[in-house]
Amino acid sequence: MKLFQEWLDRFTERRVRSAAQLTSRRSTLARLGTVLVGGALLPMLPFDRSGGNAHAALVPAEDPQHCEYWRNCALDGFLCTCCGGTITACPPGTEASKVTWVGTCRNPKDGKDYLVSYNDCCGKTSCGRCLCNFNERERPAYKMGVHNDINWCMANTQTMYHCTVSVIVGVGDLG
Ligand code: ABN
After folding, report:
1. pTM value > 0.70
2. For the chain, counts of helices (H) and of strands (E)
3. What is the DSSP string of 25-82?
4. CA 66, CA 75: separation in Å to the nearest integer?
5. In testing the pocket of ligand 1, which one of 67, 80, 117, 120 has its CB within 8 Å of the most ligand atoms?
6. What's the pLDDT tens digit per position in 61-101?
């Protein structure tokens, strides 16, 4: 009986050891396979590389922080969208110029022409970011009425130029 028990013990021990070895080898191989295949496939997955920034997907004609934004077609100055303001609002601490330069720009989305007022924002030193000189239909300085390289803050109490906004003030007559 004792002999049988010893044999059974040895038999059981051998089976348990080999089962443990097999299991461990299999699981190691499985994990290794996952890492290798996963590592090879990971770079092929479609990542969102915009960094959550909606502007990354915009084309220049639709991006207010871009000189080619359609409303900036006759602008000369620094874009307020890059200076803490918006396309229509001056940055904090500045005020809109009382006199402005106006241009006519076509909106590529609806094909209509819009009258755009380029108000300078006054009261701080030049912003220095996003310089834009699109100047569509502008003429040299000897024709003052159609020249826009001018500080429109000159009529304000604060005459220091900071940046320029593009405000729609009318839509072209299609009649
Ligand atoms: N209208 C923008 C601007 C300001 C100062 C000098 C030139 C142009």
Report:
1. no
2. 1, 8
3. HHHHHHHHHHHHHHHHHGGGS---TTTT-GGGG--GGG-TTSTTSGGGTT-EEEBGGG
4. 12
5. 120
6. 899 999 999 999 999 999 999 999 999 999 999 999 999 98
